[in-house]
Design brief:
By secondary structure, this protein is an alpha/beta fold. It is about 50% helix and about 15% strand. It is globular and about 50 Å long.
């Protein structure tokens, strides 16, 4: 089984690209780094981890590695799309990945996508619906209690980003991009990103 890792920080578009590739590649499925959080070993303070150099090997995912080895050894033809924010930069993952794709987005884009997704999930609606509601709630015509709550949510998310999230995001991005075979502009349309991956697979003789 051929393993394609899709790398990038939160908000880069890993999940969306992985889903589209599954639709286009016969016999493919996904594994997601985030689904293994309960069995992973992660530095207790990611901000401190990032400031000390952000060694990706301090993040260990033994259950993910075991599953990846098992699926990769499957003799059947097919593709495993791995959503792995660190790309190939973690030593336990590197030898198990055949093609590594990095989605490069600005820190502002990643933050905005992540915030909208998290806030939409908390509001139990999809991201586009939440975005319309959020902008409406922030308008001067909204009741003070509504606009005040919307602003409080925004301020809380931004403060969390500055104090705890920005440094780890940048550390993960640096290590992931350096380890990948294909670097794509994650702000381009999703369909074009998928076509770029398909062309690379064809160039490698994998489709």
């Amino acid at each position: 089984m051929y393993v394609i890792a899709v790398a990038g920080t939160s908000g880069a578009g890993k999940t969306s690209l992985a889903r589209l590739l599954v639709e286009r590649l016969d016999g493919s499925f996904t594994l997601d780094f985030e689904e293994y959080e309960g069995t992973s070993q992660v530095p207790s303070d990611l901000f401190v981890w990032a400031k000390k150099g952000g060694d990706p090997n301090k993040v260990r995912t033994p259950r993910l590695v075991d599953d990846l080895r098992r699926f990769r050894s499957d003799s059947r033809n097919g593709y495993l799309i791995l959503q792995e924010p660190f790309g190939r930069s973690r030593a336990e993952i590197s030898p198990l990945v055949d093609l590594c794709v990095f989605l490069k987005v600005s820190i502002e884009t990643g933050l905005t996508r992540k915030m909208l997704g998290d806030l939409a999930a908390a509001s139990r609606c999809d991201t586009s619906e939440f975005q319309r509601k959020f902008i409406r709630d922030l308008s001067p015509n909204s009741p003070p209690e509504v606009s005040g709550a919307a602003r409080a949510n925004l301020e809380d998310s931004l403060a969390r980003f500055i104090d705890h999230v920005r440094a780890p995001y940048l550390a993960i991005d640096r290590s992931a991009e350096a380890s990948c075979d294909l670097v794509l502009d994650g702000e381009w349309p999703l369909v074009e990103l998928a076509e770029d991956v398909m062309r690379e697979l064809k160039r490698r003789g994998q489709i």
